[in-house]
Design a protein that fits this description.
The chain is α+β, with helices and mostly antiparallel strands. 46% of the residues lie in helices and 16% in strands. The strands form 3 sheets. Strands 5-7-6 form a 3-stranded antiparallel sheet. The C terminus is likely disordered.
């Protein structure tokens, strides 16, 4: 669900041109808006991913002239706290999320629409969806190949895995799914980790302009 939650926050910010993102008056409503069937397991997953999004920092590569810099930026200013109220007894969490000013600014400058058909294809596989969204936002901004070591890959996608030997086969299976719905992505796998290459975004510039 993590990928869906982040995609929802970014898509709503671009659509509404606002840092304030409406989540809904109940967890069930928000789950419905994300096309997730509400239930004990999904609610627990949303709580976990809301905490992860609240703690997450994204890195943006900034180029000015001949110089390149990295900016680490929080995603939200207000944490997505979830309480344990029984269903139907009031709001289960904050009704709105406020994106951080820096993250929203970067999102406006470098929006990368995701292919809706691709998102639907991997929507029921959280790791594949996370990998697809990550590659979509990362690859188009590269100016040269970049190696992401396995330790860093596991830190980003390996929640719940204690050993790299257990995480790696599972991640590679999901990476194949992500690459299958993002055919223009250029990614190599070696013993050190993933080698990312500059790639076209999932949605071409001309298509974005006509949507």
């Amino acid at each position: 669900m993590g990928g869906k939650g982040l995609i929802y926050l970014q898509s709503e910010a671009i659509r509404t041109q606002s840092r304030e993102i409406t989540l809904g008056r109940s967890l069930r409503e928000w789950l419905g808006r994300l096309s997730i069937t509400a239930g004990g397991t999904s609610i627990a997953a949303v709580r976990d991913q809301a905490e992860r999004i609240s703690l997450c920092r994204m890195t943006f590569r900034i180029q000015s002239g001949g110089r390149t810099g990295l900016v680490n930026q929080n995603i939200v200013d207000t944490a997505l706290f979830l309480d344990n109220h029984p269903e139907g007894q009031g709001s289960l969490f904050l009704e709105t999320a406020r994106l951080s000013e820096g993250f929203y600014s970067q999102l406006q400058r470098h929006p990368v629409p995701l292919e809706e058909a691709a998102v639907r294809s991997v929507a029921n596989n959280s790791m594949a969806l996370d990998a697809y969204a990550w590659l979509a936002y990362r690859l188009h901004s590269l100016s040269a190949p970049r190696t992401i070591h396995w330790k860093a890959v596991m830190a980003q996608f390996g929640g719940g895995f204690g050993k790299l030997s257990h995480f790696k086969p599972r991640f590679l299976d999901n990476l194949k799914l992500a690459l299958a719905v993002y055919p223009s992505a250029r990614v190599d796998v070696d013993d050190a980790g993933l080698v990312l290459y500059p790639s076209k975004p999932p949605v071409a510039e001309k298509l974005r302009a006509t949507r």
